[in-house]
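Recap from last week: sequence in, structure out.
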Amino acid sequence: MFLGAIADDVTGATDLASVLRRAGLTVVQTLDTFAIPAGADAVVVSLKIRTADPAFARSSAGQAADALRAAGAGQIYFKYCSTFDSTDEGNIGPVLDELSGRLHTTFSIACPAYPALARTVYAGHLFVGNQLLSDSSMRHHPLTPMTDANLVRVLGRQTRSRVGLVDLAIVEAGPRAVARRFAELAGAGDAVAIVDALFDRHLDAIAEASAGLRLISGGAALGGALARVNHRRREPGENEATLSIRAPVAMLSGSCSAATLSQIEQVAGLIPAREIDPMKIAENPDQLTRLIDWACDQIAGGSVLLYSSGEPGKVQAVQERLGHSTAASLVEKTFGSLAVALAGRGVRTFVVAGGETSGAVLQALRIRMLTFGDELDPGVPWTRSLEPDGFVFALKSGNFGSRNFFAKALELAR
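Predicted structure tokens:
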């Protein structure tokens, strides 16, 4: 196995798997299991640790790394969002600490840059388009508000290790200069370095310089660069997944990102749609039964959209009323119940927005392994379940996708 990857949520894992597939690797994604399949160039283990307790995140990532190494992974890649979603407590830093210890390595790197999605790192600061991360909509994220764009500072608050920087001038100088800088930082006692990158060619240089590192971390784009630069590309069509996008499509959205809200607005007039109100379900559990009945009635006539997505203020009000963990658990249980009920009515194609929502849907349907087809949008591949067989998913991170994302999925369904 060329690469063993650990992703901190489900949609991030599918994003990475799609990029690796595009680079010519055969990829399998596992969910809720540390049983690693044989025969793939890369295996991406999906965890649900982005906002979990740091101790649980460390333990889960450590177990995944042990399983991947035992299966023959040459490198371990820790994948997180290209917006570095986390809090001052973690979990990026704690997981890197844990993995470094498990792999007996003293130096690793962190580079969330994803140029194709306009996420870039300059002077250690993360930009979303032409805005600093701290000036973007991520500043108001209900789970991981990113109020500091300086990744050296952000990661420094999360890890017990020293954090250094590989600046753009060094990356521009090429792989050898980057490798020398890695050695300098390691010699000075830095255990992890933020690496600048503005373009894909920068990621290629970083990937070449990282060939000898046991542990690498970043967004999906750096994972793709590792595959492009350091692995034999397969012939087009070799080991491709065959996917059939069948109607009706169940569209389930728990993401509260600005991108997802715009996508919901665009498609809501095309198919039956209903907003999920967590407060009503909390106050009267019968509301969930009625919601499921409505969804099942609608799916008999075609595709359907159900969403709990809302503006940050609305989401915050629910969290304050119910408590953060209770509100999250309620929403996830609702989407899981909807998925099971709709699958029982014959639905085999699900389009899901939001990492937590995607995890809840896959867990409820007891999906343990996925393989990959073409992308619906950059970073959002169509996936087919291997265990159990028969389901097709498009699992979208909240900020991903064009405004007509949901409509495009509808057009492809036959």
